[in-house]
C-alpha cells in the first residue's frame, strides 16, 4: 500500500508515517510527505498513492480545495481527513468532496491505526 | 462586540485536557483560569492562531522547552530541533482553536499557526482582559491565553 501524508506540521506528518508503517496495516510504502495541497498534488501525480491522509488547515492550498483535485489525478485513492476542525459540518463537507474517512485531532496512536485499517479494508488496498 | 461566555471558555479547557491525554496518555492538571491583567506570563515557546469570521482574536499556547521535548519523545519523535519544538507548540494551538468549532460553530475561521521562540511581548488585546488558563503537564507548567470576542 502506498501512502501520502499531507499536513503542514512536520511532526504530524512524521507521526502518521511512523504509525502507518508500525501498525497492523501490513507493508506500507510512504511515497510522500507534503506540507500543503499544492505539494500533495505534485506528489500524487508522480507517486499515485493508494491512501492519502489530509489535513485541512494548511497554507497555499487547504485540504478542502485539494481533495477534489487530488481525486481527479488519482481517482482510486482513499482520502482520510485528519483535522482539528472537528465540527460536524466540516466533516460532512469533506466527505461530500470525496474523502472516505474523518479523524479529528488530537488522535491516539490506536485511533489513527484503526482509521487507516478501516479505510484500506473497505478498499482492499492491503497487500 | 458581545462577550465570550464562561461556557464558551470551558471548550478551551476541555480541549487542553483532550490534547495532552490523546497525545501522551498523561492528563494535564488545570491549575488556574483567570482574567489576565497587565502582561500575560509567557514561556519560551509560543504558538498563536488568529481567529476570524464570527469571532475575532487569537489563541496562544505557551510552553517551556522540556515538556515539548517530552511530548515529542512520547510520540517517538527523536528530532528535538528548535523547528520541531516550534512546530509542536503551533500544532497544539491549531488543535485547540480548531476543536473550538465543535461548540462555537463553523463560522469560526482559524489561521495557520505562527510560532516564536522567546517572548511575544504584549500585543494589543482583543478583549479588555483576556482569559488565561494555566496548566501543569508531567510536572511542567504551561499556559493558554484565549483572547477572543464574538462579533455583533
Structural notes for this entry:
The complex is a heterodimer of chains A (127) and B (152). Chain A is α/β, with parallel strands linked by helices. Chain A contains five helices and five strands. The longest helix of chain B is centred in the N-terminal third of the chain and has 19 residues, at 6-24. Chain B is globular. In chain B, strands 1, 2, 3, 4, 5, 6 and 7 form a seven-stranded antiparallel sheet that branches. In chain B, helix 1 (6-24) crosses helix 3 (82-99). Chain B is 34% helix and 33% strand. With 152 residues, chain B is α+β, with helices and mostly antiparallel strands. The chains are: A alpha/beta (127), B alpha+beta (152). At the A-B interface, helix 1 and helix 4 of A face helix 1 and helix 3 of B.
Question: What is this structure, in a nutshell?
Answer:
Chain A has 127 residues and is of the alpha/beta class.
Task: List strands and helices in order, with pairings.
The complex is a heterodimer of chains A (127) and B (152).
Chain A: E1 2-6, H1 10-22, E2 29-34, H2 37-47, E3 51-54, H3 63-73, E4 78-83, H4 88-96, E5 101-104, H5 109-123
Parallel strand pairs in A: 1-2, 1-3, 3-4, 4-5
Chain B: H1 6-24, E1 29-35, E2 45-53, E3 55-63, H2 65-74, H3 82-99, H4 101-104, E4 108-110, E5 114-117, E6 131-137, E7 140-150
Antiparallel strand pairs in B: 1-6, 2-3, 2-4, 2-5, 3-7, 6-7
Helix pairs in contact in B: 1-3
